[in-house]
């Protein structure tokens, strides 16, 4: 007779409790409370094969309440995911283990996304569910047909991003998305009622979800609810009423069990209470076997799928897409575009150049799925005649994300994590502040998402300081593993798009201008100069006394300043800096030579100085912004804030 | 006979259309659509006196859909707010005008808060409504009794922060808060249905709001709904079904009228359609008189209130609080705390020092209202025995904000903008990414809000990289007009709290450690050294070859490195840097002397380098983080990432 579900669930409880106790750090409450729901899901419903946790058509399980990481590690270990050993559990939260405090994508097989910052797991899962529907439309239900399950806590549902996520999912009728809400009435500070009185079921229903409430410790109710979820024609929420820390005789149902070890005595008492006589980290054979058997449940389905894939005419394309490899012809048309731009030197806003680049690559790279947070026309993100990704036919490749910058960014993470999609999405650069927490997770996970941030400076003009990024270039450059591109013209914009698409393990932000700007790259070069991060755009015609560094729309300003200086007999060179991060990746001698040692080094960028000392030194001259912008036409603002060729030349001369 | 409401509303329509046309930039659609609702509100319900737009007991009107700024400017002008002249409207969106593209607090009398970043007006209004209830409890309904009205658009309601705002308001039963939703079915990209299908009424109801739907062009329905709102025992939402751009024969009801000038021809047609024969910016006397009469409606009420205030025993305290002046004894106990700390040199986490500081000032400064985004115990923000600010008795001074960092930060802005409250609120420093858009608005507005950001580095340990700020100090320092404090010990923590409280026009972020750290200020000084931003903490005992700059928990690391160097005969000094921004405000000679010209300059901070070149030059040595952190106990992490006294000393020697 196989082990009954309750003892299988208790195995999760005890392993979670033991690992937290061993680390003397962590969150036992949620794993103990949700063990029953998780046991039913993982042994009866979740489509997965522990031998192949990366199988493309597996169900995705997202632990949005990431602090309950021991639930997930216990499940992975018990199911038989090889890398998650008993030693992994013993080393919970220790340096170098594959069981970090919160689940981290890339560290542990079976962890679908990094979670911990609340609400984002749910919002990322929406992207995964979108990817599933989209790829099913592209490759057929034979190859793509799986569900996305989310375990979310009260904190996830209080976070604003949950609203963006559930309203987007409801609008898109993502029927294969199910949220299991750990409805335990407890937050860190105490009873959830201290801070919230939302009727969550009514709220989700208002967003277009199917909803149901169950006792999260009644196996029959759990099973029926999960089966119910699979029959819905819209996303589904199951409110699982649970007791946090269930099993602990003293702390169950209280916030004391949320985020710290139970303590030696209580661990003993909990073992007694559960009737679990085994030593720490010991799972009796019978229970271990039952779990491993559940972990093999999907093997047959997986093999059948592999056979279908092997027989499919779409196999090559499917495997290429899922591996994230670009088609060989991805940039064929774009390279011609670059050559044309070098010849014709078009003056336009870089957002327009970006739109033109998309026209050249969108047809060539079928994985590209674009969108905008309700600024499509302003962001130039839409390639004409592209069908919209929407119910019931998800084959479209453009998403109307709505006024949901954060939700969009998190969904883009989910699209990328799922695989088979390369997402890009637009908003004004200033509103990367809204999406910043998701950009950070993309950077931490090392995934390819492309943020199109238009209206990238005071150059946006009349909308004023609420809409004018000033510190955003600096603050995004401060974030590890994000490539921040600020191209100057059509050629650089095309180059930066290529770099963003080639960066499989790094998210990118493209900062693009609203206003028209002159071409600066007007000679055929045959090399992607932006790949160096910074490069000499114009040499001095006489011994160089001044170097002017600039990015984006300020590169023409720098060139004009150079002309002024040279006209006065002062040798000046101009360095274009489209990407700080790629410059840092260059060999040191390239960096040193490029920066050079002219008497005066000046940087000009319509943003704050922070970061530019790398190029100009702390005694260099910076021409840019010292505070917030203002509402006025763009030319008036550049003049008002002194970001002009005359000002740059004068500052250089004053310093000489 | 006074002018009828419809012509008064048309005056708004035409002024808005004319100003946008004149600027050839702006958003005519919303003002034209909501003119009828606004006309009823401002002429019949809103308690205000145009002669005194800063009267303390006025109703607050928040234009959350800030792009419709011409609605507000029209209302202020028509009502008779002196500063908003016809010339102001003619100079809409021009440099130096008081009619910037989006409403900006401090630029225009009658503008209660800066709006434009969607959703935040609503979330800020929640704070205003909280302040009203709290101050009514403190000073009585005779002195404080007013409503907060919000005009929000579809974009506001799609933004995640709206969820945090409405669930907090619902939980707190803020009955004097009413949202007028411009339910016009249009967003920038087209019909709202392209991206959203939320049943907003059901959603607000689920959050505990009273809800009602009306025809936003039916004056009777508008009037009855506004009256209904004033009778509710909870916050209220009125969905006003409107036609965007109403009046424009060609574009009304379409997204074409959302965000650009109508164009010359259409302006003519709209005049004809409205039966408005007057020249641009001309309002006929009869209509102008009716509006000005409405603008004087509140004068009598205001004068009666002034009489009550004059007679009140609470007058002095009320006026002091509303002026934002601290009590004279604000820091009496804290100064003793500093003296004690200098003498006793307590080692503890700086978050604990912060908690101890609060114990000393909370009783002395009755305006302080604290809170946390569900991390009260971790943030040390709660002063014991403080009653909770909650319905029905709002006299409490601690807010359970829930897991709503952004909503909290926006509500704090509202508390500060209302006046009479000095808000502080806690979360982990890493989650300032969630609240960042509201911190930015506080900086732009120049208001005093205090963010307590604990767990300020890898020193938080096991929770891992999702919770470890690495780039946050740099990214917050990049933002104009924010003081980022990172104190090292009890004395610096007390000093920084004083500076934050004294900064009436600047928001502050206090970055505080989770982990215990040694005292560094152990001599009585009698001066707030943190006020200099950076100061020499330890001189070299021999000719100085090395200067070590550090902040927070890395100051003891710097001191220990100095000891190591001095033990080897290398003179080394240590500079503590609790606040970059205040250092920049020092005289240049202080800055130059402090930074000095030792052979080697080293900075140590458990974050990224960006910004530190100001102190060490681009050729200086930085000991800190180059990427994300990891999950492990804090001591293991400091060692793993090489942030130790030994590493600092070795780096300095290598450079010598």
Automatic annotation (TrEMBL), chains A, B:
Keywords: Calcium, Magnesium, Metal-binding, Thiamine pyrophosphate, Transferase. Binds 1 thiamine pyrophosphate per subunit. During the reaction, the substrate forms a covalent intermediate with the cofactor. Substrate binds at residues 27, 258, 351, 378, 455, 463, 467, 514. Gene3D superfamilies: 3.40.50.920, 3.40.50.970. GO terms for biological process: pentose-phosphate shunt. GO terms for cellular component: cytosol. The keyword Metal-binding applies. Thiamine diphosphate binds at residues 67, 116-118, 155, 184, 258, 431. Its EC number is 2.2.1.1. InterPro entries: THDP-binding, Transketo_C/PFOR_II, Transketolase-like_C_2, Transketolase-like_Pyr-bd, Transketolase_bac-like, Transketolase_BS, Transketolase_CS, Transketolase_fam. Catalyzes the transfer of a two-carbon ketol group from a ketose donor to an aldose acceptor, via a covalent intermediate with the cofactor thiamine pyrophosphate. Homodimer. This is Transketolase. It comes from Phenylobacterium zucineum (strain HLK1). The lineage of its organism: Bacteria, Pseudomonadati, Pseudomonadota, Alphaproteobacteria, Caulobacterales.
